[in-house]
Amino acid sequence: MSKVWIVNSAGHDFDAAKSYGELIPLTVGRVNIFNVERLLSEFKGMLANHEKDDWILLSGNAVLNVLAVAIVLAKHGEVKMLLYDVIKKEYVPREIKFDEIKQ
């Protein structure tokens, strides 16, 4: 079963993402986004178990999302993301391949 890595779990209901896999939070609540080196180290450790078919659920601060996506791109050359559509109240899957963004 795939995993859904929630970048920041801070009080939102993520049940709609359960159909994509097991929910796993990378961070919970408030996070010091200015200590990027520590966050990078923690995320690399946690995402060491990230599989190519797992998802990154974008949530919380942009810095956290950038780090999670960058780590997965570096590891697999692609990343599968879930974006929340507020109007439809559902998650929309999107994928980025590293080759698509290289210049």
Q: Could you characterize what this model shows?
A:
By secondary structure, this protein is an alpha/beta fold. Helix content is 29%, strand content 26%. It is built from three helices and five strands, in the order ββαβαββα. It has helices at residues 36-46, 62-76, 98-101; strands at 3-6, 22-25, 55-57, 78-85, 90-97. A five-stranded mixed sheet has the order 2-1-3-4-5. Helix 1 (36-46) packs across helix 2 (62-76). It is globular.
Give the gist of this structure.
By secondary structure, the chain is an alpha/beta fold. The chain has 3 helices and 5 strands; from the N terminus they run ββαβαββα.
Largest sheet: 5 strands, mixed
Largest sheet: spatial strand order: 2-1-3-4-5
Number of helices: 3
**Residue ranges: pLDDT <50 for 5 or more in a row?**
none
- The CA-CA distance between the termini, in Å, is 34 Å
Radius of gyration: 13 Å
Shape: globular
Structure summary, number of beta strands = 5
Mind sketching the topology for me?
Layout: E1 3-6, E2 22-25, H1 36-46, E3 55-57, H2 62-76, E4 78-85, E5 90-97, H3 98-101
Keywords, please?
single chain, 3 helices, 103 residues, alpha/beta, 5-stranded mixed β-sheet, 29% helix
